[in-house]
Specification:
The chain is of the alpha/beta class. The protein has 13 helices and 16 strands. The structure holds pyridoxal-5'-phosphate (PLP).
Length: 436
Amino acid sequence: MNRVHSDQLYEEALKHIVGGVNSPSRSFKAVGGGAPVFMKRAQGAYFWDVDDNRYVDYLAAYGPIITGHAHPHVTRAIQEAAANGTLYGTPTELEIKMAKMLKQAIPSMDKVRFVNSGTEAVMTTIRVARAYTKRNKIIKFAGCYHGHSDLVLVAAGSGPSTLGIPDSAGIPTSIAHEVITVPFNDAPALKEALDKWGDDVAAVMVEPIVGNFGMVMPKPGFLEDLCRLSRQYGALVIYDEVITAFRFHYGSAQTYAGLDNHEAIAPDLTALGKIIGGGLPIGAYGGTKEVMEQVAPLGPAYQAGTMAGNPASISAGIACLEVLQQPGVYEEMERLTIKLTDGLTGFARQYGIPLTINRIRGSFSTHFCDHPVTNYDEAQDTNGEMFAAFFRAMLNRGVNLAPSKYEAWFLTTAHTEEDIDFTLEAAEASFKEIAK
Ligand code: PLP
């Protein structure tokens, strides 16, 4: 596949944009380096690059594009919003409509606040939890990604129950020491951490269904234990649903039918982003009335935003949710995903490639290993070189995946049976190539 123009643009980008990309996940560093593909157009399930190659897209912009690229209903909403002015700096009726839609779909949220990214949403839930509990520490789970604010860019220390160490330069150790990292799906480790630091833990933060080291379901009872233990020690529960909200059904992980006992697993605060902006920048957080009333102008926890709740993002978000309200959309995404994952499993077996697939409705992750993946250690213990080779083989056959072994494949409402057949044909040839 000829990508001469992409390569030239990458050289040019390197001169002006740090690393040539505006988010490190877009670089090809995790799959052996080289020029990422520069796209010029996207429609439905497809991308076209600057050399006019077509790709079936499973990146979905890391999640938000669940209705496919340039969905007409979403595009129309953005055009109409733009024609009426993109930013007011005043309240609008649209924000109320969207807040009501979110509350109806995620009943643990009595009150909502819009921000501009998932990072902001998560960062603020932590501030609110600290303000409410008057405590400082946060417990998070290894491998869960919660955006790039200081407190959540912290890795586990050397033991299961140690204070964190910074995961990025520029984060003071003193901040990292406010964070405790424990393994996902491990309630005893959580209990151990709470036993040690419980008096000063403001919140336990988790992706209730993980999307950042593959797609990983909580083990039965894990979220119940997490909520029970947190409350026992006076800590709030924060769900980071930036990926999971509206991903598996019209609602969030906390109300997903795959998890029982919805009341017992309801969090105090929820962070949202991605899908709820229909492809424009957005974030939101919400929670119980009592906790949310900590936020300014009602309470002492300050949070603000010039762009927050802007009519363009809110209109795109409402339109996206309206598409997702149509009957059968999630069922169809799931049907096609099952066909795709069944096919991938079969071809991997045929060519002797160890492959574990974690599928949750219309999304899944591919782990090149022959063991289950239920936590970050198991996700790390997979063959990254084989994933990199598969990624490139698929790209060269017109299938766009995220350039990291930890990222998910996302289907959209735009994918068709033909796209799945095309992808499976590419996958068979790719497995054959990498098995050599
Ligand atoms: N939380 C989760 C679970 C995420 O996956 C991400 C981004 O991938 C974020 C938070 C940060 O969101 P944003 O990139 O919009 O800042």
